[in-house]
Amino acid sequence: MAKSILAVNAGSSSVKVTFYTFTNPPRAIADAQVSGITAPPATFKYQRGEFKQKEQPQENLATPQDAFKYILQRCFSDPELSEVASDNDLAYICHRVVHGGDNFEEIEINDDTLHRLEALEDLAPLHNFSALEIIRLCKKELPSVASITFFDSAFHQTMPLHVKTYPINQQIAKANGLRKYGFHGISYSFILRSVAQFLGKPAEKTNLIVMHIGSGASICAIKEGKSIDTSMGLTPLAGLPGATRSGDIDPSLVFHYTNEAGKLSPASTKDMHLSMAEEILNKKSGWKALTGTTDFSQIAVENPPSEAHKLAFDILVDRILGYIGNYYVKLGGEVDALVFAGGIGEKSSLLRRILAEKCSSLGGVEEDQTVKDISKGGGKGPRTLICQTNEQFEMAYHIVCSRS
Ligand SMILES: Nc1ncnc2c1ncn2[C@@H]1O[C@H](COP(=O)(O)OP(=O)(O)O)[C@@H](O)[C@H]1O
Ligand SMILES: CC(=O)OP(=O)(O)O
Ligand SMILES: [Mg+2]
């Protein structure tokens, strides 16, 4: 039997895993995810063909590594999933790694490349560490299978220099790699291809404003198939707020957070070496700080349970609008579509409706297909689309295209 591809997407609140056939295009054999890692109890969802299952595991799945181990054990022990019962059935494992630094192409993991990626761990504190833990686990538990990493940041390498550059001392910036990188690029790459196909245009002639709104949220301006700007920066903290992230703030806020702030010693968690400020802004801010929940489905409701929930919703709408206006102007008003994606972008019709209403000045802005048209406005202005993004597919597709 032909071997399969295992694609792993460790997000900040979820681990999504899909097994694919080694065919062009890859076909999903089974799909498993653990979501709500930051809002326990976590939920396990499993799909194999027509068979669907959803449950709350007894085990405490508090980290992406726990979630991955659990998923693997569930899939390998499913008697109906005969295609993948052990590492012998796998040709490749693809891993989404959020921060790739100056690596733009996929990388096959060996001791040397793993060390190089370990050097980037601090730059995506909610992501790279977990992805690398999963890679280390695969190396140990599935040693015969090659692990290939794909980088979220690679898609944004086309951003112009004046967009990528922070106006700080350039010697220090260059020596330390301090620039805008941008993330969610595997998702943007999938969305660009799917939406261009849907619109019947070549990707290299397609202009989009894409919103990937999940536990981490970002927006990307795509001109003629290339990223020209995106809201995340050196790290995924910049730009829009998220489940536990502040998004953009005045950087000086850090020095005024407490009277003691200047005196704090760095709080290094055992494995991640985060400074206290980084930890607060990455893990203790966003929806969690405002409302106590990281579950946006409790916030995006017609009658919010508290003023704080309403405020959280209004903040997200306001920040997204700021970027849409910015990118609409940068694209010279030539936008084929505004695209909603990511857990919140795909599922919250309320967020989409409010944003569409507020974007009506752009000329008319408004489920189980990959791309769905929800435009209103009689053909004036950009169309509004929902795209069910699929980072696992994107990685498997690249493997099939480049290695078969
Ligand atoms: N119906 C819904 N309405 C609003 N938000 C939702 C809904 N369903 C899921 N979400 C939110 O989507 C987010 C997860 O998005 P996802 O893109 O899967 O996250 P990750 O960052 O882990 O990849 C969570 O914050 C969850 O609360
Ligand atoms: C980059 C990022 O924030 O990813 P996610 O939304 O999957 O957490
Ligand atoms: Mg994600």
TrEMBL record:
InterPro entries: Ac/propionate_kinase (IPR004372), Aliphatic_acid_kin_short-chain (IPR000890), Aliphatic_acid_kinase_CS (IPR023865), ATPase_NBD (IPR043129). This is Probable acetate kinase. One of its GO terms (biological process) is acetate metabolic process. The active site is at D152 (proton donor/acceptor). Substrate binds at R96. The record marks H184, R245 as: Transition state stabilizer. GO terms for molecular function: acetate kinase activity; ATP binding; magnesium ion binding. Pathway: Metabolic intermediate biosynthesis; acetyl-CoA biosynthesis; acetyl-CoA from acetate: step 1/2. Mg(2+) binds at N9, E391. Its cofactor is Mg(2+). The keyword Magnesium applies.
